[in-house]
């Protein structure tokens, strides 16, 4: 549970599946390709750490600082929160009142008397309010029933009668989170908003949807979201369609997912975790409507639900609102027994082995993956045991220097780690670890290495320094509780659910002070022993262990496609003529239903905000810029916030413009070396330990962003030839540890050990492996990066540092490192020398700090001496002003881009069962005015037309578009798409659709308002303190004025139907449109038959 609340920040649970996109952050990962990230065509400052939480030594002392900020809060607020514990309601009985002091959360657990529902009401000061309904939904087979129902529930209900109220909410609410997830044993429906009226609107729609969905009355929903047979012409073959069907085909195309799923099955042979709640594409078509309805009636009953509220809204109103939905149900205790998750006994007397296969492409090297998996417990764990496990997991795998991770990577037996260590979000905890990219003959060597390492650990234990480092890392993050844009209340809910779902106390699960103290006491008296005992009991001597090996198959992809074809054709043969007519009829009925607009009456059932509910002012965050601070030559940027809990968030940016373009592709690996290979007197393990013991984490990344030229008119599209290009070292620490943070920054910058050939090869191989799997899992983003590179220099730089070209670079660097290491080392050393040029480097340095006043004051002397010790001459030359001059990479980049731009249709082949289809161009040419309304229209297109045509009708998991007002770049993208050329046709018809919509909107002010509200919602997300600082920093570095932002907001609010028309005209004439698609060889061959030709390239 402890690691689970922390990991939420980076990935959410590995085992969960969401209704759209990957269930991360408020704007889910799909959105990451659109909205804000494309305003600055660059990677923003990296505040996301793989394991984002580290913290320092003098535990008790620092602790008091973090607590002090909490105590600073007015007593009044605390009083108000405490009062919420007195609230009662006649329809509910109180089961428990509790205060989780760790998070200032005042909790009441109620039981709704009539229906038996449990409701946890959490009052905090957070205005980002969260609501969730969680149901225990253990599946019994691989039909994906729980997952398909999760999707389907959101497609209309008794009170809210549109086809897709969920999409309506996506389009036009201020939600900060709106999604649903399926776990192996539960289904969660979650909404969040900072606006109270909006919040209650969202809750009403979700509550009605869960208990009274259209899906259990109308089989069309199952057909659309789950599976159906499609046929439009009797001569054509039958086709399987369905959103979840294709979503899961995408999942089953990824070797990483295959390994993980199979690993889970292998250690839970007897209980519900043995089946895939997401659904196996070969089994999904077996799901019948009767089973589907039955599953809903069995598990979607209030007695089997856990309802959650958190935030600063009124408790009585929460109870009142839910009573309206609950009171029509009578308690059904049998659903509780029916849904209870059985414990999987640790019953293996010897380790088990299985071999599974993954589809490997033509020229792809035939490597194997494996994962060793342990079932850790078959009885409940104590809070102390859970925390100890979390720390142990960090000791073994938390950083690249952790013993198990390091040993595996340094063995050279494989390319990247699999399994990810501890996973404890379900009833029982598991530990999985292994390697991918392993030669066939080395599989058993990897197995031996893992087991030997664990045995050694159980005998020799960990050093005091290692333990302090890991413990502090976990503690820092527990206290900071920084969930980024992910609502804190949701993190809290998911944390409580790890106990509540299994009928234990929801609030006990969140308290960490007591077990933390127990663990510290235990370590103080007997050192490493508690960890050694645990390794011995749960891993070394635990025979309930499996090894899953994933072997390559060159024929699997074809076999799967053939199987599906055979299955479909035998179905077709078995059908009579009239059966076929019936399928054609149903196909047409479904399409007609999907393409029909909701009636105004139906639409009126969905509660919505009005334009007058929106804030007119664009939010700005504090910023103060001090050039040449203390005559250091360095610019310091500060963001003074009300509270950062005693923590300083600091970034140091160092200019890269003196590098030649040829060296730019080396930067991603160079930034890794800065952190991973040790620096100065520290070897890699010592450096990692220092970071863990004294700071809250350090990361190194690249920031390359196009900027507005000085004095430029920000309302017109920019050329992107003025750029800022920096290496950024970011970290966080409490103010008393700031000296250490600065010292480490300086060491990593000037004295990183670049000369480790083995480490460089290891990092390169890991990068190759990561890039290849991302092409398979997120082909849309590969396609988008490629297309951007054809139009804008910033896009080109992204491509050569993270796209397909970068993958090729990595492959050639692996060869160079192995064949001529001195040459590569020389390049790295020169790169550093060039960046740290004595004369100019100070002028290109920026230090960005976010903190509360006390923090900023306290760290001032440390900052002064840090500035003193930085490399470079304080009174050296001024760097070229890139807000005036074109960036030096631009001329050469444009030459090389010419080659890319001549490609108008590229196809990238990967082994997969689905496609990722992209088409792009410049909607606005350089110097053309970009109105704020363009953001409304592009969002409208994404959540309306593309959602309906690519996802709902096309059967893809996602269909969307991205638009950058800065560069004018516009792209269409699809995600896990069963179609290829048909999707391109959908894109091509978008402009005409918008033209017709413009006419409709003239007489439909509400639909227009919906589009505007949603766009404003995107601008007003909930931010953590460090995000407020980094947002304002980004705005500053791209040279965007507050007046411009306000003007854009005003224009968004004033969007008219004619703006849709104008946008449509532009889309029609999209400048130099081009296409990039990631898909299988077979799909490209099929497309060629339909007249779509591509220049084909193998990615692997
Ligand atoms: Zn899904």
TrEMBL record:
Keywords: Hydrolase, Metal-binding, Metalloprotease, Mitochondrion, Protease, Zinc. GO terms for biological process: protein processing. Pfam families: M16C_assoc, Peptidase_M16, Peptidase_M16_C, PreP_C. Its cofactor is Zn(2+). SUPFAM superfamilies: LuxS/MPP-like metallohydrolase (SSF63411). GO terms for molecular function: metal ion binding; metalloendopeptidase activity. InterPro entries: Metalloenz_LuxS/M16, Pept_M16_N, Peptidase_M16_C, Peptidase_M16C_assoc, PreP_C. The keyword Metal-binding applies. Belongs to the peptidase M16 family. PreP subfamily. This is Presequence protease.
